[in-house]
Design brief:
alpha+beta; seven-stranded antiparallel sheet; 17 strands; about 25% helix; about 50% strand; globular
Length: about 300
């Protein structure tokens, strides 16, 4: 029989590796294997927020400094998450390593946060490594994420499985939206393909849009979300579910540079009414990171 309990210990104004951190959290495990108890170090997390950053610094500058420092010491993999507006990096695991390092920056207008995590493999395998190991599917309708495409090739690839709705130009990208698109055994209300200015396909998103007050629509949203969550778990393994006031979601990080997220969220539509959205999204880490850096270069 095996049980494990995670405990945390918070410290303020800590100096580590020559840098001052306003907050540090130490994690420890208490394990019970065949009734023999033992303690193990799980890891440490350092964090900065808008409320406690040092004078004359910003979360952007802190993230960039830490990113540069870590990249000089480790081989780092980009792990952006566009759903939560988060960018980040995690160290590759090599033979003989005892843990991993992860850096994340969630950009929220008034409440951003930068976290630096040093995690033992006991903890990292439980929380991170399992999400990195799967090879996430990267080809849909015969189109591979990262390949160069045009409006014509995408329309041709979708064919009868969806009806072209519109094209929208955005900063550094071009979005093509289809309605009533057939994908993964279901007809979704909308499907969106995102291309860079040079034509690289970097994001595919499909969703259904439902009223948030009709019980039948709420049941349909729950049914769709739970069904696809189960299918993803069967294919890629269980993922920790995130829950907030607006809904819930699961996400996967692929060892091939592809991210995957499934969410059920309540949010405002373009018409201003609140609706329920169930969204399945595949995207390229590397291209999202490049677009983020490109926008930052203009600041």
């Amino acid at each position: 029989m095996y049980n494990r309990q995670l405990s945390s210990h918070i410290f303020e104004n800590v100096t580590y590796n020559g840098r001052e951190y306003p907050c540090m959290c130490i994690f420890t495990f208490t394990s019970d294997i065949l009734h023999i108890k033992s303690n193990a170090f799980g890891g440490a997390t350092f964090s900065f927020t808008n409320q406690n950053i040092p004078e004359k610094q910003s979360l952007d500058s802190i993230y960039n400094e830490l990113s540069s420092d870590l990249s000089s010491k480790y081989t780092m993999i980009d792990i952006p998450d566009p759903i939560t507006n988060t960018i980040g990096k995690v160290s590759e695991i090599s033979e003989g390593d005892n843990g991993i390092v992860r850096l994340r920056y969630q950009k929220v207008a008034s409440n951003g946060i930068v976290t630096l995590e040093y995690m033992s493999l006991i903890m990292s395998f439980a929380n991170i490594v399992n999400t990195i190991l799967p090879t996430i599917q990267d080809t849909f309708f015969g189109l591979k994420i990262g390949s160069r495409q045009t409006i014509s090739t995408i329309k041709s690839a979708v064919g009868y499985k969806g009806t072209f709705l519109n094209e929208e130009k955005e900063s550094y990208s071009n979005r093509l939206t289809f309605k009533d698109i057939m994908f993964a055994g279901k007809t979704w209300d909308f499907g969106t393909f995102s291309l860079t200015e040079s034509g690289e396909l970097y994001d595919l998103s499909v969703n259904i849009s439902l009223t948030d007050y009709k019980s039948d629509d709420q049941k349909e949203a729950d049914k769709t979300y739970e069904s696809f969550k189960t299918r993803l778990a069967e294919k890629y393994g269980e993922a920790k579910e995130g829950i907030d006031d607006d809904g819930k979601s699961v996400g996967y990080i692929g060892n091939n540079g592809i991210g995957l997220s499934l969410s059920k969220q309540r949010s405002k539509s373009k018409g201003g009414n609140y609706r329920l959205y169930v969204t399945l999204n595949y995207y390229s880490f590397e291209i999202y990171q490049r677009l983020f850096n490109q926008s930052n270069d203009e600041l």
